[in-house]
Fold this protein.
Amino acid sequence: MRRGAPIDTSKKWAAGHNKQHVMDKNTAALDRETEELKHDKVTLDVARLIQQGRQAKGMSQKDLATKICEKPQIITEYETGKAIPSQQILSKIERAIGKRTLPSLTPTLIPTLIPTPIR
């Protein structure tokens, strides 16, 4: 019910204006940046080893995925070289197919996994 009491109002900053597309200095600098950062992917050598090992055991991608408790899409990504390598998944695949896949992968992972000593 209305009692005639004064109502407190305050204008919000940029209310009713299309201020979301204003470019400031930081936004322009980010737009000019051209550096592309990408994650390392599984090498094609490792992908072939996984595929050959799976076929040698007579397994489909779905069979291998079920055996290691992962989705079939994960196996497809590893065999096409699109997956970001996970030590845990690679270890499960190795145990399932009985082949070592990591020796060809370790030279790229060792620098990121072992911290350099501070002197």
In short: Helices lie at 25-32, 44-56, 61-67, 72-80, 87-97, 106-113.
